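Backbone geometry:
***
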Amino acid sequence: MENPDQHTTDQDLDCEGLLCPLPVLRARKRLLAMAPGEVLRVRTSDRMAIIDLPHFCAEAGHGYLGASEDGAVTTHLIRRGDQKPAF
């Protein structure tokens, strides 16, 4: 995994205060609008996102680049996959 603190991102998504499954659903929607290879930074406060977002990426063909924590907020990086999403 890459270091999320030292990575250039193309778009940001603030999901602080949202509970599962909303961070995944919002990330999915944003990724659909992005070009393959672009990187999305997602900020979450829901502890389940550390499990849900990597699982979503594996299922949908996106690259989960890693996460970093800053207090109650976790920042996740996702690289948009090349294929069209299955769901």
Q: What stands out?
A: The mean pLDDT is 91. Helices lie at 22-32, 49-60. The longest strand covers residues 63-70.
